[in-house]
């Protein structure tokens, strides 16, 4: 099974911060291990990581029950995400505009990765989306669509 080491290593390579790497690696390793050893409630760790401390506890019971039930599938998704190989240097060869979008309510690591990607891409930029977090494609769909359209049309 692939581990989160490579993706966390990408974070270190992009952001250049061993402390961020270590903290991120610990969160993901802990989450995966907890779920795989029979603790589906660990899905709360991911919810709180992406949406803010205490978010999972504020959700309705029906929602948290569904998330707990989906925890093993989520772990498979997390592993699949980290299965890919990434080369921070490859961003330097992208000829097209690269727009990274981060919500102003997203975790700091999200902003740092978005900024690092934009910095590595010759035509990279970061767009900060107000009052948004990891769910911005759901909560701010029109704004995200406008950002994509602007990138495509060059507005």
Question: Widest sheet: strand order?
Answer: 1-2
Structural class by secondary-structure content: mainly alpha
Number of strands: 2
* Fraction of residues in β-strands: 5-15%
- Average pLDDT taken over every residue: 86
Shape: globular
Please tally the helical runs, counting DSSP H or I stretches of 4 or more residues.
Answer: 9
Which residues sit in consecutive blocks of at least 5 with pLDDT less than 50? 1-6
**Over all CA atoms, what is the radius of gyration?**
17 Å
- The CA-CA distance between the termini, in Å, is 44 Å
Your description of this structure?
The chain is mainly alpha-helical. 61% of the residues lie in helices and 8% in strands. The protein is built from 9 helices and 2 strands, in the order H-H-H-H-H-H-E-H-E-H-H. Strands 1-2 form a two-stranded parallel ribbon. Helix 2 (18-36) packs across helix 6 (71-83). The chain starts with a helix and ends with a helix. The model is unreliable at 1-6 (pLDDT under 50).
Topology, element by element:
Blueprint lengths: L4 H11 L2 H19 L6 H9 L3 H4 L2 H9 L1 H13 L14 E6 L4 H13 L3 E6 L6 H4 L1 H13 L2
Helix pairs in contact: 1-2, 2-3, 2-6
Summarize the structure.
The chain has nine helices and two strands; from the N terminus they run H-H-H-H-H-H-E-H-E-H-H. By secondary structure, the protein is mainly α.
